Amino acid sequence: MNYRNVTVAGSGVLGSQIAYQTAFKGFHVSVYDINDESLEKAKERIMALKPRYQADLGASEADVNAAYDRMTFSSDLSRATAEADLVIEAIPEVVQMKKDFYRELGAAAPEKTIFATNSSTLLPSQFAEETGRPEKFLALHFANEIWRNNTAEIMKHPGTDMDVFHEVIEFAKAIGMVALPLHKEQPGYILNSLLVPLLEAAQMLLIREVADPETIDKTWMVATGAPLGPFAILDVVGINTAYNIGHAKAQVTGHDEYKKVAELLKSEYIDKNKLGRATGEGFYTYPNPSFADPDFLKS
Ligand code: NAD
Questions:
Q1: pLDDT tens, position by position, for the chain (299 residues)?
Q2: What span, in angstroms and rounded, lies between the C-alpha atoms of 178 and 180?
Q3: How many A from CA of 91 to the centre of ligand 1?
Q4: Ligand 1: distance of its center to the CA of 10 in Å?
Q5: Coil, strand or helix at 67
C-alpha cells in the first residue's frame, strides 16, 4: 500500500471525522463537498475535533495542528481528486445521490484512483457499475467517533480486485483502525449483523412482558461477561434510532410486535425526552446507571 493522497467526499458527521483521522495519521487529505458553505461547516466540525483528540488520545497541540495543515478543501471534484490514490465517499445515504456521484467521480478522478464507500446500509454492488471501475471499488465502513471507536469494516463486492481489497485493509490499519475484512457483501456488515438482532430480541422480550430491562441486561452480562447489556447499548445508540428501526420494520413486515416496540419507545421514552445517554436518561439514568453498580451482577 503506497497511498499518500486521500480525498474524502462529503464532509458531514462521518466525512469530517474520516478526513481528520486520515490527516492525523500523516496522509495528505483533500476534502470535497458540494459548495463552500458545506466546506465551512466541515472546517468548524474539524476544528472541534482537535480538543477531542487532545482529551481522548493525549495528542499534543502541535500534532492536532499539523493534522489540520495536511488538509485542503475544495468544491471542485476534478481538483479535489487530481492527486488521489483513494477516494472515501461519505455523502448522504440516498441511492440516487450516490449513483449520480459515482458517475461524476468516475469521469473526474485519475484512472489509478481507488474508490471506497462508507455507506452503512447500501451495498457496493449497487454502485459498482456507475464507478466505471468496479474492480477498484469496495466498502470501507467506519463507526461514529472514529478516533475512539476505531473499527473499519472492509467489504468487497464480487468484482473487487483482491489486491485492492488487501491494499485498503493495509490503509485502514495505517490510519489507526482495527481492520475487519468481509470477503462477501453482507447488509449491516459484521457489527450490525450481530447487534441488530440482539437488540431486537431484547426489545421483544420486553414487549412480551417476559422480563424487565435490568433483568434482561443482567442475564446477558453475567452469562457472557459483556460489560453492557442490550438495553444499556440501546441507550448508547439512542432511543430515536431504535424507534426509527422498529417503526420501519413495522411498516415493512406489518408485524404487530414491531409496532408495539415502536409505540412503547415513542410514548415512554421519546415523548418524555428519555433519548438515552445523550439526554442523561433512557432505559437507565446517567451518569450513575444501576448496571454500573458493582452489586448489580451479584443479586
Ligand atoms: P451527513 O448528512 O452528516 O453528511 C453528508 C455530507 O455530504 C454533507 O456535508 C453534504 O453537504 C455532503 N454531500 C451531499 N451531496 C453530496 C455530493 N453529491 N457530493 C459531495 N458531498 C455531498 O451524513 P453522515 O452521517 O456523515 O453520513 C454519510 C455517510 O456515512 C452515509 O452513507 C452513512 O450511511 C455513512 N455513515 C454514517 C455514520 C454516522 O454515525 N453518521 C456512521 C457510519 C457510516
A1: 799 999 999 999 999 999 999 999 999 999 999 999 999 999 999 999 999 999 999 999 999 999 999 999 999 999 999 999 999 999 999 999 999 999 999 999 999 999 999 999 899 999 999 999 999 999 999 998 999 999 999 999 999 999 999 999 999 999 999 999 999 999 999 999 999 999 999 999 999 999 999 999 999 999 999 999 999 999 998 999 899 888 888 999 989 999 999 999 999 999 999 999 989 999 999 999 999 998 999 97
A2: 6
A3: 4
A4: 6
A5: helix
Q: Which domains does the chain have, with CATH numbers?
A: 5-182 (3.40.50.720), 193-291 (1.10.1040.10)
Q: Which of 14, 121, 142, 153 to mutate to test the pocket of ligand 1 (most atoms within 8 A of CB)?
A: 14
User: Look-up: residue for cell 458517475?
Assistant: 103
Q: Which three cell numbers stand for residue 33?
A: 463537498
H/E segment holding residue 88: strand 86-89
* Mutation pick for ligand 1 pocket among 7, 35, 78, 120 (CB with most ligand atoms within 8 Å): 120
Q: Which grid cell is 271?
A: 415523548
**DSSP assignment letter at 281:** B
User: pTM to 2 decimals?
Assistant: 0.90
Output the nine-digit C-alpha cell for 126.
Answer: 449497487
Q: Of 44, 43, 63, 45, which is closest to residue 53 (Cα–Cα)?
A: 63
- Measured at the CA of 96, the angle between CA 85 and CA 112, to 5 degrees, comes to 15
What is the whole-number distance in angstroms between the Cα of residue 108 and the centre of ligand 1?
A: 20
User: Which atom belonging to ligand 1 lies closest to the Cα atom of 41?
Assistant: 9
130 within 8 A of 103, measured Cβ to Cβ: yes
Which of 31, 33, 94 to mutate to test ligand 1, by most ligand atoms within 8 A of the CB atom? 33
DSSP 3-state of 179: strand
